[in-house]
Design goal:
This protein has 260 residues and is of the alpha/beta class. 34% of the residues lie in helices and 26% in strands. The protein is globular, with a radius of gyration of 17 Å. It starts with 10 loop residues before the first helix and ends with a strand. It binds S-adenosylmethionine (SAM).
Length: 260
């Protein structure tokens, strides 16, 4: 255990409990948990992909964590899905859940998204389609120069990321450098579907308090625009002041296109 203050970086290897994280933030999908932010982002992701323009062969998800929620709405619209994650224990959890003996099946998230997209289908159809399209769960450290530790990736048609780019950087300047690193992996004309938090300083995973970057909407938008992205849509939902699990001001979903 390092110095005092919220946990960060390598402490994700040792202190981040995947089951506690999923139980707190993803087990109940209604307005009673963090002000309804998770149903909000699932609905917005669904709207963005269902509109039909965000598609392609290859999708990269940055910082998938122990749950693939950020890619579920994208599954019917891409062919190859590359998941990436910093912590080895989260990678193992995700791998066991999708391909091994893990008990986690994310059924409530798949059901929620299936109800939004095509109620006539069983949720397991989307789950099986995801499993069939995942090409790997790769290491990722956004704070390193070589963020994928030697894995060679050609450019992607779509990049998704959710609640990760605000977990990694220690300050706003570093956030700007991460945006530059990530933007190198997307094709011209490619799409970014990004879920993030604003004005946050911590979130709890069980008893463990994790650090989050306090960043504003203007700062987020300016960094992506500077890297050649045009913002197609931005939607936000306010946090709930009564919530004790995290202190975020808003959660947002941003869709951008890489123009230059
Ligand atoms: C709040 S979780 C988000 C998980 C998931 N994407 C979601 O939407 O729920 C934050 C994620 O950021 C990852 N992370 C922390 N530091 C990182 C770093 N330096 N590079 C890449 N990912 C990092 C953690 O391992 C964790 O999976």
């Amino acid at each position: 255990m390092a110095e005092s203050g919220p946990l960060r970086y390598e402490q994700y290897h040792t202190h981040f409990d995947p089951d506690a994280y999923i139980k707190t933030y993803y087990s109940v999908l209604d307005g009673s948990v963090i002000g309804g932010a998770i149903p909000f982002i699932l609905e917005r992701q669904q709207d963005i992909f269902k509109a039909g323009d965000v598609k392609g062969k290859r999708l990269l998800d940055i910082g998938t964590g122990p749950i693939p929620q950020s890619v579920i709405s994208a599954v019917p619209f891409v062919q190859d899905i590359y998941l990436t994650e910093f912590s080895a224990s989260n990678r193992k959890y995700l791998h066991d859940a999708l391909f091994g003996s893990g008990k986690q099946d994310y059924s409530n998230i798949f059901k929620f998204v299936t109800d939004l997209s095509d109620k006539s289908q069983p949720w397991t159809k989307l789950s099986e389609e995801l499993k069939g399209k995942v090409r790997g769960i790769f290491p990722c450290d956004l704070l390193k120069d070589d963020i994928f530790a030697g894995s060679y990736f050609p450019l992607f048609d779509v990049i998704t990321t959710s609640f990760c780019m605000d977990a990694a950087p220690p300050d706003v300047d570093t956030y700007g450098k991460l945006v530059k690193k990530v933007s190198k992996y997307i094709k011209l004309g490619g799409h970014l579907v990004y879920v993030g938090v604003l004005d946050e300083s911590f979130y709890f995973v069980g008893e463990e308090k994790f650090y989050a970057l306090n960043i504003s909407a203007d700062e987020v938008k300016a960094f992506w625009k500077d890297c050649g992205f045009s913002i197609q849509s931005w939607d936000e939902i306010k946090g709930s002041p009564e919530c004790e699990d995290t202190d975020f001001g808003s959660v947002f979903v941003m869709h951008c296109i890489k123009e230059s």
